[in-house]
Design brief:
Blueprint: E1 3-6, E2 10-13, E3 18-22, H1 34-42, E4 50-56, E5 64-70, E6 76-80
Antiparallel strand pairs: 1-2, 3-4, 4-5, 5-6
The structure holds zinc ion.
Zinc ion binds at residues 6, 8-9, 57, 60-61, 63.
């Protein structure tokens, strides 16, 4: 289970949150551009590594947050409000395994 640091409530269990997808895909600005809207809704990357994501603290403060999570190890490098620019780690996460 993930322990997600909510900027409002502190470290909380993943079960209190709802995942809402990538925070990296830019939201289309032209409401008449159906192709851009379809691409935004249906075509998402499935990255291996660090990923910026939106989470909703549905069973807590009910606020939206942004989380930088590694998609393989689930390590969380940072969290903040959706409009914050969070630092994206460049190094591999600490997997707890020595060498490989
Ligand atoms: Zn919260």
């Amino acid at each position: 289970m993930l322990r997600i640091p909510c900027p409002c409530c502190g470290l909380r269990d993943e079960t209190e949150f709802t995942y809402n997808g990538s925070a990296e895909a830019p939201r289309p600005t032209d409401p008449e551009d159906g192709a851009a809207a379809a691409a935004y809704v249906y075509f998402r990357a499935n990255p291996r590594g660090w990923h910026a994501e939106y989470w909703h603290h549905a069973q807590g403060c009910r606020r939206w947050i942004k989380v930088i999570r590694h998609t393989v190890t689930h390590e969380i490098a940072a969290s903040g409000w959706p409009d914050e620019d969070l630092p994206m780690p460049e190094a591999a996460p600490n997997t707890g395994k020595a060498g490989r």
